[in-house]
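Many introductory courses stop at the sequence. We go one step further.
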Amino acid sequence: ERPFLGDNSVQVIFKHLHDEVPLLPRRARGLQFVVDRLLAKERADRPGDIAAVQAMLAPFMANPDSIAGAD
């Protein structure tokens, strides 16, 4: 599902600029910090390249059960 929905593209763009990143479903909550970084409002807060994304995902590749996160 797309992170931001709207009736038109202007609404979606506004949400991308101003709304908080929505929470992932509980079963994927461990990945929330990855999604938060990928959708960060400030460019400097987003990963610089695919290697940075791979590094963030590496722990989940090693232990897929951690994707559910801790509540």
